[in-house]
From TrEMBL:
The chain crosses the membrane at residues 12-39, 51-74, 81-105, 146-167, 188-207. It comes from the Bacteria. It holds the Pfam family BPD_transp_1. InterPro entries: AA_ABC_Transporter_Permease, MetI-like, MetI-like_sf. It is a multi-pass membrane protein. This is ABC-type metal ion transport system, permease component. GO terms for cellular component: plasma membrane. Keywords: Cell membrane, Membrane, Transmembrane, Transmembrane helix, Transport. PANTHER family: ABC TRANSPORTER PERMEASE, D-METHIONINE TRANSPORT SYSTEM PERMEASE PROTEIN METI-RELATED. CDD domains: TM_PBP2 (cd06261). Belongs to the binding-protein-dependent transport system permease family. CysTW subfamily.
Length: 217
């Protein structure tokens, strides 16, 4: 691989990491509260409200049902409004975050639903309010699952960022398409695939270690 190509590879790797981390953090900040809202407003929840629960669930399911490539195109006007352009790494973060947020919300919801109901009832019996239950029981007890779900979300975002790269978002996907595919440079394609595998394995390894430290069961 030539020095110029190596420089392109490093820059593309940085762009992929930037897209993944930025959209991942947004999905965590927005998706976890959505997951909590789905759990607490469900039937038998600590703030039961089926109208809110069903409405919120319908919106989340609606976004999750749209293929990412279609969402990417459909959100171009919003992307331009937020970042001023529909091309480039920063522009890709908008659809990536919007696609990942409902995905992570459902993962967080599953983890939160697995919290022992007896712990919630015990805190209620001691006079704990809804915020106390969320802060002291739901989130801490579901934390291993929340972290594991976030790890899965980051891995999914790496694949989505490569797809976004195919339409001008930069990153490893863009490098693989422009050089590996269009210019028939097989070594570039193979290198990109290897880097993506290493990146995914690294994120999964870190996530697994964090879950092991947090899991006190």
């Amino acid at each position: 691989m030539t020095p110029i190509m190596l420089e392109l590879l490093i820059r593309s790797l940085w762009e992929t990491i930037l897209m993944t981390v930025a959209s991942g953090v947004i999905s965590l900040v927005a998706g976890l509260p959505l997951g909590l809202a789905l759990v607490v407003t469900a039937r038998g929840g600590i703030a039961e409200n089926l109208w809110i629960n069903r409405g919120l669930g319908a919106v989340i399911n609606g976004f999750r049902s749209v293929p990412f490539i279609i969402l990417l195109v459909a959100l171009i006007p919003l992307t331009r409004l937020i970042v001023g352009t529909a091309l480039g790494t920063w522009a890709a973060i908008v659809p990536l975050a919007i696609a990942a947020t409902p995905y992570y919300a459902r993962i967080a919801e599953v983890s939160l639903r697995e919290v022992d109901r007896g712990l919630i009832d015990a805190v209620r019996a001691m006079g704990g309010n809804r915020w106390t239950i969320i802060r002291e029981v739901l989130v801490p007890e579901a934390l291993p699952g929340i972290v594991a779900g976030f790890t899965v979300t980051l891995v999914t975002l790496i694949g989505a960022s490569a797809m976004a790269g195919a339409i001008g978002a930069g990153g490893l996907g863009d490098l693989a398409i422009r050089y590996g595919y269009q210019r028939f440079e097989t070594d570039v394609m193979i290198t990109v695939v290897v880097v993506l595998i290493v990146l995914v394995c690294g994120i999964q390894w870190i996530g697994d270690r964090l879950v092991a430290k947090l899991d006190h069961k």
